[in-house]
Model the fold of this input.
Amino acid sequence: MKRTKIICSIGPVSRNYDTMKSMIQNGMNVARINFSHADEIEKRETIDLVRQLNKDLGSYVGILFDTKGPDFRTGVVENDGINLIDGNSIKIVKEDVIGNEERITINYKDAIDAIAVDNIILLEDGLMKLLVTDKDAEGLTCKIITGGFLGSRKGINVPGVKLNMPFISEQDKEDIKYACENDGDFLALSFVSSKEDILEARKIMAEYGNTTMKIISKIESDTAIKNIDEIIENSDGIMVARGDLGVEVPMQQLPVLQKMIVKKCREKGKFCIVATEMLASMYKNPRPTRAEVTDIANAVLDGTDAVMLSGETTVGKFPVDAVKYMADICENTELYLDYENGCEDCQKKDITGTIARSVIDTANILDIKVIVAATMSGYTARRISNLRPKSYIIAGCPTEKVALSLSLNWGIFPKIVPVYNTTDEVVEDSTKKAKEFANLKEGDLVVITGGFPNNAPNKSTNFLKIQEI
Done:
């Protein structure tokens, strides 16, 4: 069984019972609903499908809502598109105009005030490149460095420039409200640039009565890279969103930035997701390229908790096969992780951290297949997961909500259990769960850990037992 988690974006090809069932059975752990594309009916259908399948399969597939974020785009252009020719000039104006080959407008006029001469402007995910050569009251005069065919309402990036757009739009507020009201497990925030963005989102969540949904900050800009430490510190998890990030920073820096972000997440005890174009060829082809296989494997070797599929499972021809290939690649690569040495910088010097380290050392020395963590909030299981044991981690959770919150943490297999009152109860039930999960035989060992009593104030993990089947 693989330990790396898989997020699948849900769209037209996967929003049906049979396809989603097959995706779950082949390794999907979290369903992603993209607010940029899904309408009201599609969102409702996806939520209902995931929850019905969890009930039918006994699975714990989480739901991730992904916000649109600041949306900076060109305006409408004539004739369904215009040709930008290398070397020509074009003006970006504040006035609302129908764009042509001489001038275009943008949806966020105040951005012009933040952009200066010699700044680079990228259009449509970097396919076209402009250099600002002059600025006046009317707008920006630009030289076309790399031309192309520009349609209406295409995305704009200005690398290295903070545009002071509102981080959370009115539409984003409505979407966050929807995520809270529908009890989402994860909220992915697009274009986070500082800790203030995360705090703003948490405040809005609290206004709608939800303080448990995990916040994932998507790293998509040079500014986010500069503030990466404070962003990780204030987030529950991080997504390396390589699409927009690869537009905002030189593309050749992406592999190093990915490794840096994953490492920092491990050190801070936050889960990490690597996303974008992981199996892009499978939009149309039944098998991945060798480069894609290597890309997924390297993300696993870097130490990521999860990998993500986007268009492969929303509009691609082979959504189930994409999940299966990704799961197989993850599982095979996990055989070669360095389980003995782990992550020395990941251990916090507290009681739970010390016991988590002891649990893993014990499991490694005695070659124990299963660790059982009795956890009220998921915290104990997360701490063990972060140290990457070779053993499987069963998290005994008191509620479905806690179990779903663990669906993005590496190596954790949640199970709903009663609230234990004594250590004897946890040992008896944990032994049973471990035996069923891993087909253990008489004489096999299980490591069991947790915190007792459950109602103790400031309870931390304080219990470790080796139990023989």
